[in-house]
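=== Structure Prediction Worksheet ===
Name of assembly: unnamed complex
Input type: mixed (protein and possibly other molecules)
Chain count: two
Listed entries:
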Amino acid sequence: MSHLHIPDGIINPVWLIIGFVITGLLLALSLFFLRKENIRKLLPRISAMSAVMLLGMSIPLVFIGYHLNLSVLAGIFLGPWAGFITAFIVNFILALAGHGGVTVMGLNSIIIGSEAVFGFLLFNVFKRFLGLRVSSFISTFMVLILSTFLMIGIVGLTQINPEEILHHEHNHAAVTEEHNHKVNVKEVAEISLTRFTKIIIPLAAIGWVIESLVTSAIVVFVGRARHDLVSGVEK
Amino acid sequence: MDLYFIDSLASSGKSFFHKASAISKMFFSASVIFAIMLSKNPVFLGILLLFLLLFLKLLRQPVFKIFAMTFYVAVFAIIYALSQISGPPVWPFMIVLKAITAALSILTLLTTTNYFEVFAVFGKFLPKLIADGLFMTYRSFFILLKVLNNLITAVKVKGGFSPCKIFSNLRNMGGVLGTLFIHAMDSSTRNSEILTIRGYRGGLARYRGLRKLSKYDFIPFLLGGVIFAVAGVFK
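=== Predicted Assembly ===
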């Protein structure tokens, strides 16, 4: 539920460009940190994880478009940098499949990629004193809360002004009237973000629980069957 | 996620649009998205959506099934639109309209173009690891899809999914995805060895030659240009 499914054509192009620039920088940073890795080994691991994420997303859950994300799992299994690249690849294919805006791909990648990065960090902190099941559950749950608020933050930051989008033919004759109108639009925007948060949080909370339960089940299963695949566990 | 369905439509179609190169069709879809971004006119957006649906019908594509694929985007757009309901009355309608039309323009591209051709275009400017990651993820998706279907059938046969046992279902799903992940990692190791034997040094996506421009590319270029020009006039 933490995808930023804001449609194309709504967000100001400046924010879209900022999103792409930040994602580009994070990708460059990821490639820099992975430069010593063997591409022949890294590429199949990234593509295998990306494919599993896409397949996980194709399993419908409960109702209204819930599906698994597994980006935290990507961070746990591949580490933060390969996890970020995996999240970008998945996001890229999702956008091409009409599952989210193409122009918001940059902003989306920041959110989903952050799940992989913070998922890795929190999991490695918790697993020092907790078991695999609990540490993966808690880290996934916390990261999903974080990414949902990151999404709400981005929505708030890129606050869409209906005035800019809609075709208005009013004549703003008086300066005071125009000022009042601007104030009203600002009020609308503020109310909208609160309402957006109120709608999204209860829906997302169900997603947090489902995703955390499934992620911990996968980590426990893989941890038992193939201990070496869970990043850092063998160290 | 309907990658399998999208891929089959792109591979089996024989319309004039299918025969055009990825570049001209990407120009067409980009023009539609830019037109959506530019437009502030709900009538124009409605006509554009209708045009895309009729165009898909002309290409003998399953219009309703493709339209249904915009569901995920529409769900988030509706949530977003609901949060904006205190704004001008046309605004929520515009959000949903923009979301669906943009998603449909991307689906028009992907249901008429082989993914590999699209990736080959992106392979020109994306880093090797990411471009090849896209290519191999897509390939792995279809290999693993069969494995996933077999695993789900096996779990169902053994009574692993029961409508009343939510937690048990989620645990079993974790087991299925865990098995899938291990299978994916093992096959990725084999792929890694194959790549090593073949002397892989990056650049899989670039090996796919781009289809040369032909007479079939005239229509996508023309339509894209006209849509963008009309959007500029009636914005």
